[in-house]
């Protein structure tokens, strides 16, 4: 039996991006999302190389540019807000940059008329047989689909239900982080950002929304912690307990943290799996191959992965076994290259006095060395680890699904 009805878990970026292409190819698509709506906030995400090609083929470049940002110069400061070093915006911005919440909104608007969205709902169980997947939802309903795709992030529920416990695939990089919106009380301009660091900790503030607000970020080094990743009160207390005695703007940011509508906390981790599909269930984006925020490539991987997976499903006339195999073969080089970008995470949050001193020296001299261009080019090199198939030329833009 060929696939026609597809359920996607997750309505952030990867899920709606996949829905866009599946709709275009004539599949019947449903997206289930635990949150009551599209999640706002988040950090700036950018696109390079093949990801830009995908956005152009989606005809969404103009819509994204309406929300375009451009991270400005990053300045490293001490507790007195005195400049220690700075980096140009090219170190953090790709060819196109947008806040994650704004991007999710663009993708939702592009898919809502052709996709069934089930908000405030989640998958509680699934049962697969040779012809399809029976899915039980938290609202008590059970429905049947031909395929299920988990695009539900680092803590993927679909991955756990299908492949087993998260701990089998999680590779912790010994860093935790929080990010949330605040007023732009420091009057930062043009997406400029400030970083303040002490041993095992780093705090950042960037302007956002045309300087009308800001984003605050807290990073701290730690071995794996036992906590409830859905308990925001517990997570905020973890931030307070580690940063409560820090100087600079930290006391003010901790006060603003409780007022933030979009507080997010998680580990800096990667998902490493030998395969991304099992039977009629596949994984997309962070659910299958999270490279961590340290790579700066997660959103590009999600967008490219959605394009490849949908294209392969249509090119194989809906034969999921062939499609999942080809999707993984084409995507694996990109995911491997992007995960390698995060290997220097310990230099972002140094855990020894020597590394803290050394990292500050590197920040000072790097903009004035030949290595500057290499640092800028590394993400683009990783992005170009994949050559996009032209599914349109392959004749897969059919009006019907077999």
Automatic annotation (TrEMBL):
Q: Which GO terms describe its molecular function?
A: FAD binding
InterPro entries named in the record: FAD-bd (IPR002938), FAD/NAD-bd_sf (IPR036188), FAD_aromatic-hydroxylase (IPR051704)
Question: What range(s) does the FAD-binding domain occupy?
Answer: 5-315
On the tree of life, the source organism's domain of life is: Bacteria
Name under which the protein is recorded: FAD-dependent oxidoreductase
């Amino acid at each position: 039996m060929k696939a026609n009805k597809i359920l996607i878990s997750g309505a952030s970026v990867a899920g709606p991006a996949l829905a866009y292409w599946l709709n275009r190819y004539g599949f019947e698509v449903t997206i289930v999302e635990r949150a009551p709506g599209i999640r706002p906030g988040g950090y700036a995400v950018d696109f390079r190389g093949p990801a830009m090609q995908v956005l152009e083929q989606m005809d969404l470049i103009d819509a994204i540019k309406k929300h375009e940002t451009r991270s400005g110069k990053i300045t490293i400061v001490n507790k007195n807000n005195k400049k220690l070093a700075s980096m140009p915006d090219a170190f953090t911005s790709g060819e196109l940059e947008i806040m994650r919440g704004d991007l999710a909104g663009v993708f939702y608007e592009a898919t809502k008329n052709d996709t069934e969205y089930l908000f405030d709902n989640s998958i509680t169980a699934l049962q697969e047989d040779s012809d399809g997947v029976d899915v039980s939802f938290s609202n008590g309903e059970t429905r049947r689909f031909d395929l299920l795709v988990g695009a539900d992030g680092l803590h993927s529920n679909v991955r756990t239900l299908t492949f087993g416990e998260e701990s089998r695939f999680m590779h912790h990089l010994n860093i935790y982080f929080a990010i949330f919106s605040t007023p732009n009380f420091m009057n930062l301009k043009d997406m400029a950002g400030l970083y303040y660091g002490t041993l095992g900790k780093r705090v950042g503030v960037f302007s956002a929304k045309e300087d009308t607000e800001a984003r605050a970020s807290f990073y701290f080094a730690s071995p794996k912690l036992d906590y409830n990743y859905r308990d925001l009160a517990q997570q905020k207390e973890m931030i307070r307990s580690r940063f409560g005695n820090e100087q600079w703007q930290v006391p003010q940011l901790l006060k603003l943290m409780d007022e933030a509508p979009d507080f997010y906390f998680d580990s800096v981790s990667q998902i490493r799996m030998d395969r991304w599909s099992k039977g009629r269930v596949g994984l997309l984006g962070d659910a299958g191959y999270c490279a961590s925020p340290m790579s700066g490539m997660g959103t590009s991987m999600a967008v490219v992965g959605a394009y490849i997976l949908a294209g392969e499903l249509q090119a194989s006339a809906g034969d999921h076994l062939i499609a999942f195999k080809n999707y993984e073969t084409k995507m694996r080089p990109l995911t491997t290259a992007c995960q390698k970008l995060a290997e220097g995470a310990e230099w972002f949050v140094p855990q020894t006095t020597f590394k803290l001193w050394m990292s500050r020296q590197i920040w000072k001299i790097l903009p004035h060395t030949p290595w500057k261009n290499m640092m800028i080019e590394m993400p683009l090199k990783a992005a170009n680890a994949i050559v996009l198939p032209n599914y349109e030329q392959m004749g897969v833009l059919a009006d019907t699904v077999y």
